[in-house]
Amino acid sequence: MRFPVRDAAGRPVGYVHAKDLLARGELGRVGAPIAPAIRPMPAVAADTSLPDVLTQLQETRAPMAAVTGANGALGVLTLDDVVVALIRAGAAPTRPA
Q: pTM for the complete prediction?
């Protein structure tokens, strides 16, 4: 399981993987510092096409990306979200060569 991490202003700054917290013995510990376990999250513009988002996620090996607009962060898009949307649109996801 992966969880997005936001800064004090609510902007996505990365994500943590539950296995990293388990390995550190901090999963479920209230007040445990997670900063050392935060992994980087790429950012994509809100008008980026889904195939391009998929490519960026594959190239960065990230399971999610922060979606940004003219006024800053809009939310988080997961790899699962992208794949489901592409399948529903009839565009089969492919791996870059």
A: 0.77
